[in-house]
Amino acid sequence: xxxxxxxxxxxxxxxxxxxxxxxxxxxxxxxxxxxxxxxxxxxxxxxxxxxxxxxxxxxxxxxxxxxxxxxxxxxxxxxxxxxxxxxxxxxxxxxxxxxxxxxxxxxxxxxxxxxxxxxxxxxxxxxxxxxxxxxxxxxxxxxxxxxxxxxxxxxxxxxxxxxxxxxxxxxxxxxxxxxxxxxxxxxxxxxxxxxxxxxxxxxxxxxxxxxxxxxxxxxxxxxxxxxxxxxxxxxxxxxxxxxxxxxxxxxxxxxxxxxxxxxxxxxxxxxxxxxxxxxxxxxxxxxxxxxxxxxxxxxxxxxxxxxxxxxxxxxxxxxxxxxxxxxxxxxxxxxxxxxxxxxxxxxxxxxxxxxxxxxxxxxxxxxxxxxxxxxxxxxxxxxxxxxxxxxxxxxxxxxxxxxxx
Amino acid sequence: xxxxxxxxxxxxxxxxxxxxxxxxxxxxxxxxxxxxxxxxxxxxxxxxxxxxxxxxxxxxxxxxxxxxxxxxxxxxxxxxxxxxxxxxxxxxxxxxxxxxxxxxxxxxxxxxxxxxxxxxxxxxxxxxxxxxxxxxxxxxxxxxxxxxxxxxxxxxxxxxxxxxxxxxxxxxxxxxxxxxxxxxxxxxxxxxxxxxxxxxxxxxxxxxxxxxxxxxxxxxxxxxxxxxxxxxxxxxxxxxxxxx
Lengths: 405, 244
Fold this sequence. Notes:
The structure holds two protein chains of two kinds.
Chain A: H1 3-12, H2 47-55, E1 66-71, E2 74-80, E3 85-89, H3 90-96, H4 114-121, E4 127-131, E5 141-146, E6 152-162, E7 167-175, E8 183-193, E9 198-206, E10 211-221, E11 226-233, E12 239-241, E13 245-248, E14 254-263, E15 267-276, E16 282-291, E17 294-304, E18 310-319, E19 324-334, E20 340-348, H5 352-359, H6 365-377, H7 386-396
Parallel strand pairs in A: 1-5, 4-6, 5-7, 6-8, 7-9, 8-10, 9-11, 10-12, 10-13, 11-14, 12-15, 13-15, 14-16, 15-17, 16-18, 17-19, 18-20
Antiparallel strand pairs in A: 1-2, 3-4
Chain B: E1 2-13, E2 16-27, E3 31-35, H1 42-50, E4 56-64, E5 67-68, H2 74-80, E6 82-85, H3 97-104, H4 110-116, H5 133-147, E7 151-155, H6 163-176, E8 189-193, E9 207-212, E10 215-220, H7 222-232
Parallel strand pairs in B: 3-8, 3-9, 6-7, 7-8
Antiparallel strand pairs in B: 1-2, 1-4, 4-5, 9-10
């Protein structure tokens, strides 16, 4: 798409409401951000940023393949520590690679809705991560998107390319410091997982009570490629809506989505959409929701288009308060013969039997509830390096995740 | 002094009365066995002592260590020293057995306990999840060995367990009830429900009772009572001359 074509589409979709989620008034947010100081190394970042990153599971240290940190609209760190992985801020990548013609806005359309249009109309910011052909990394690329100014509309556009036979692990923490009362984060991400490449993408969100979030993600997976996508939201947010779409385009491609939500307030609309377009592809989507307040809509959609495709959806929710709502929407769309597609959805309460069992061992009702809730959120995630697995475990096993107050 | 005293206890579930004017006393250091056909109230008795809330207490009281616990919560009873091995415990997703041991008793030597029950391979497994019948029983014993209750209740710890593991479970029950000490030194007590009495070949019970229709109809020496049941069935206990 020509740059002018992108701008044109964006202009036309400026007021186009999204299919899902509450409508955000873009006009009520600031679109200009003050530029931030940049740093050569992640270690040099202000301690407040490093601590915020740590809270969302991103330990900015040398045990990584590289780092990308964005404060408001400025890429303050973009550095690779491993020659097999290229990490750049988006403006530099567009300049270096002739506007990334084969990738830029290829999986997410600028006119998908007003949010994508808004990102398309803004100057480019976000990360470009490329794992070079055959390069396998164990240490993850660590990235942090930090919304540090009140009332800002933070716009991010990321492109991730895992070239043939590569292995890439990314952890992204998105966060706001406590002093930011209100804000909007729109993040467009496009993932290109090429032949036999293996990618894990783990995203941990920690926003404020008055922050609205609209990620827009497109993923394509070629023959033999795989993606393990993990999304964790345990802190309050005002509204959040995301529905990443993955296309399994080549034979044997695999996608797995794990979503872990602990909701106390707000309106959270999450899910994943997988198109199984090639033979022997398989997809799995598992979501675990604990709701003690607010509304959570947990979607999952799988579309099987070729014989032999396998898909499984699991949406399980624990609703622990009258002030909350969990709306689980698993959808299976089979479009040919010889498919194997299934789903399992449940919304319920903590089992009395489990509670009594733990209480018979001396745990009080609150402790027992907390143990059960944390166990419920402890999703078994395959294909992650051990360190990252432990990081996720640490986040989902926090002591303050409880039953209803 | 009695460790546990149950006086005239009547219990119902919904409109059905399960225990009728039930009486039982267990001294410190004593282990009792409970026999009786299905549906006679044995599991209900243990559940009511443990404090599971689904039952209605229509009358009577339960006194433990001199304290009336009839209406005390489950966790308070556990902290007071009551422990129970469930017949069919639930699985807890995401809770590893070794973590539960630490939660039950932070000072417990998890490794030693798991080794004692030949259960080290299950340390990182979710509690009871996907366990076989015999593995569930060992998991229960592991948890009780960590909890170290003063009064342990065992609901059919031998059902579904192979011979090799029955021995292991019997030994664990002996440990929990301090059978390695001289009788006068023992302070811990227990009650065990068993259908066939196999477990009694591997553990020591001091006294036995036969329950029928929600009350005890016969009490005495475990070996003799088991013999009598084998000879003339539970009904034979009704008119027997054993002192109740």
